[in-house]
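Continuing the batch. This is chain 6 of the set; chains 1 through 5 are on the previous pages. Same settings as before, nothing changed between runs. Recording input and output for traceability.
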Amino acid sequence: MSKCFMCPRECGTDRSTGLGVCGVPESIAVAKIMLHKWEEPCICSGAGAGAIFFSGCNLHCLYCQNCKISNGKHGNIITENDLVKEILSLSEQGASCIDLVTPTHYSHALVRVLERVKPSLNIPIVWNSSGYEKISTLKDLDGLVDIYMPDIKYFSPDISMAYSNARDYFEVAAGAVCEMLRQVGPPQFDGSGNLLRGVILRHLVLPGCSKDSVELLTQLSQRFSPKDVILSLMSQYTPDFYMLSYPEHEHKNLTRRITEFEYTRVLSHAQKLGFDGYLQERSSANSVFTPDF
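Output for chain 6:
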């Protein structure tokens, strides 16, 4: 790698000698490897999802619940050979899937790793990302990823700029979802209800942003059939991480949890549009559900 143009930031950094916008060099840094029982039910049966949390992130949302690792300052360097061994070990421990969390900035290396482990696995590979992906990078993963699980965060360019410094977020993420659907198609389940292939769209309802959430879902329903994806509508926003990282509290709405009205408004609209999937109890809005890094 000479210059990195792997993600939509296209920072052009030589990550062999410096840090990209993602906050990490080209060497793979892993913050945590665990059996994770708190993912969506269709991908974490039995022992749980075999989650690998990568350090760094190309989006850097103000309210990130994984902020301890998304800044790239926490994690251990791991070789591709060792990552192969860790993936196979998770499978041997009974993982229901291999859940690659925030993997975008390591896409090139992960293509090589997945090409090696895929023939030895009988569980799905999950690409668990922010949704801020380049289509050309996703095409390199075609045939290697079984389940895409991107966030789909905002419709408004103003909101995505304010919270993630990415004015083009919606157009980029919506295009990425269409490419993901092209690769894996509509949901396919086994006889026990475990997802084998498909796209799970995660949307976190933010306080003060339910109107944007409604418009986001409307726009998505015009780009593909709601029945072709599983929607995971999340109410778990907690202000702890924003208030810790940004004590000046510029965005006052981010200092509170969402209301029942806000969540119900978005949920009702999703159902009206024909989306199906998962909802969350509002008790999930608690930092105790965030893995300890």
